Amino acid sequence: MPSEPLISLRDVHLAFGDNRVLKGINLDVHKGQAVSIIGPSGSGKSTILRCITGLLRPQSGSIRVGGTEVSTLHTEAELISLRKRVGFVFQQFNLFPHLSVLENLVIAPRKVMRRERAEAERQALELLAKVRMEHKAHAYPGQLSGGQQQRVAIARALAMRPELILFDEVTSALDPETVGEVLTVIRELTEEGMTCVLVTHEMRFAEDISDVVYFTENGLIAEHGSAEQIFQHPHNDRTREFLRHALHDRGQRVGKPAPDVFSNLSRFSISV
Ligand SMILES: Nc1ncnc2c1ncn2[C@@H]1O[C@H](COP(=O)(O)OP(=O)(O)O)[C@@H](O)[C@H]1O
Ligand SMILES: [Mg+2]
Question: What CATH number corresponds to the domain at position 101?
């Protein structure tokens, strides 16, 4: 791809005390791409995402997001300006429990972007329709299922009109029957050309939607390539072994049948 990457990590090293967590990460994401990061627990995936948003600062290496060198940002204002451009959705939805769904989407655009209330509400309703949650605009987060809350959390990230969105295991805490509706929303975003970086355990989904897949192991990128290459013809023994476990043994690990999102297409329909 000829264009400059939207996100570019070069030789990024990060340690927590003696624990060397990132040992020279190189990673590129181009505008409009869906890029997945897969790998064993503790291999540094979340740390990579947190570095991209400036939440963590590596000891060395370069991280560029749309022409901004993240390590040069120091003031709170500079970091807030980066975080406006980079949406982040976590495993835990972190919606404000005392605010309605609509207010959860209105608050940051009003406070951070200084938008007019009417404009912020109009956009919020539009985004809720996009994630098929407009009928719950006046409900409170506690009244929603996990999948519904996560769809609201995605709409809330979109309300800042970010240039890209990072998803960190956003379906890991959900009941299996609500995973599909959240994945559907993410799939639609990638189809619309939103730049997305996903850390996920949903291997079939990652294979299906990703332009590029990175496999992390022990603080390094062991292998990266097209989804087809990584999932069908992995070069690295560790990738192969990881995928074998992730694709076949997952049900044992979680103590229930593996929630294969493609085994039952009805799970892609949105429950309301
Ligand atoms: N805030 C932190 N302080 C100390 N150690 C951390 C912190 N966050 C992550 N780690 C350590 O960094 C390593 C990688 O963690 P993480 O990036 O969360 O891995 P993954 O997302 O791939 O499971 C782990 O050994 C974890 O214990
Ligand atoms: Mg993680």
Answer: 3.40.50.300
